[in-house]
Amino acid sequence: MNREFRQTVIAGNWKMNMLASEVNAFSERLGTLVPGFRDWCGVVVCAASVLLPAAVKAFESIGVGVGAQNMNQHESGAYTGEVSAGQLADIGVGYAIIGHSERRELYSETDATVNQKVLATLKSPLRPIVCVGESLSQREIGVTGDIVAMQIKMALHGVAAEEVRKVIIAYEPIWAIGTGKTATPEDAQEVCRAVRNILASLYSDEIAKVITIQYGGSMNEKNALELLAQPDIDGGLIGGASLRPESFAAIINAANQ
Ligand code: 13P
Hints:
With 257 residues, the chain is α/β, with parallel strands linked by helices.
C-alpha cells in the first residue's frame, strides 16, 4: 500500500451467498469489530442483486459502501433479467465488480463486454472494480504479464485520463480463487506492479500512481498483512473470508498496520 498517493480499498465479494435477513446482523457485528476504519481505508461489500437494498440500508450507518457483482452495459431497455448502472446508483449502490473471472468463465463475458460495462459505469456514479488475472496454464506457460496487459488495455479502451482515476483494478489470479492457494506476496506484487506500469503506459506515471490496485484470491486474516504490505497492493477483493464479520474485520484491520 502507499497511502500517500492512493486510497486503500478492502472489498468483500459475497458471490451467491447470504440472505437479506442476515445483512443487519453482519453489519452490526462488523461495526463493533472495526469502529474506526473510515479513517484509513474504504470498505465495500459486493452483494447479490436481491440483497442490495437491504445492504445499502444496513451498511450506510457504519460507513461501508455497497457494490453489485455485475451489471448490464445498456442504459435501459428490453434486457430481461438484467440490471443497469443507473438502477444500481438509484438505490444507493456505489460500486460494481466488472469482469470477474467467474462471469468470464461461466457466463461467457469477453474483454469487449467488460469494456462496454466499464464505459457504462463511468457514465454513472458507480466506481467499477475491474477484475483481471491469468489461469494456471497461462501462468505456467509464462504469459501472465501478456494476459493481464491485454485485459487491462481492452477493459480501458476509450476511457479518458480524467475518468480512469475512478477505476479500481483487482488482480485476481484464477488459480488462487476459492482454492486456498494464495499468490505469494512477491508474485502478487510483481503482477500488481506490472499493472501499474501498463496504466502508466496507457495514461501517465502521475495517473498510474493514484489508481487503487487490489489483490484477490484466497486472501484471508492470516495472509492479508503480508499481501497488503506490498507497495503496489492497495487493498483486497475477498470472497470466502468476507462472509464472516470476524475474518473480514481482521483483513480490514490488517490494512491499518
Ligand atoms: P476467494 O477469496 O474466496 O478466493 O475469492 C476471491 C474472489 O473471487 C473475490 O472476487
